[in-house]
Amino acid sequence: MSSKTHEIRPNQSIELLKELHILTRDGKMNQDSRRKLKQVYHLFQFIEPLLTDLKQQKGAVTLVDHGAGKSYLGFILYDLFFKDFHGAAGGASHIYGIETREELVTRSEQLAARLGFTGMSFLNLSVAESITSDCPSRTFTVPRVGRRTFTALKRARSS
Questions:
Q1: Considering the domain 14-146, what is its CATH architecture?
Q2: Which of 2, 9, 22, 112 could form a disulfide with 117 if both were Cys (CB 3.0 to 4.6 A apart)?
Q3: Domain named Methyltransferase: which ranges (predicted)?
Q4: Cα gap 53→46, rounded to integer Å
């Protein structure tokens, strides 16, 4: 384990990172956690301008994370971007986590409540069910992408 924390962004919730097991109780990060966090930061780097544009145009951003699992991605995106806009003028931005496994939905709801992340909701639905549910229809949906996709996006961006 490394004791370096230079990968953590300013104003990021240390408590959240510990809850997600990215950081140990003593604030250390292992190599696998560093890789996962770096992957989320890369995705955020690509979508932050889109989120910012939507926020400026619409006053609020709604993001749906389909197949959210433990909502690792949703929590970090909320912490990096959405928490600053929750309850802001023009409407509250919100993240919905869509997940079929009820136990993961329950755990995510509990974690969001514990952290005061009131701009997050978790729905025990399939992707197909979410289309016909109360989940907002105008959304920015987060795709599931792997390391190869990130590499291709990085190459395309630098070209």
A1: 3-Layer(aba) Sandwich (3.40)
A2: 112
A3: 35-134
A4: 12
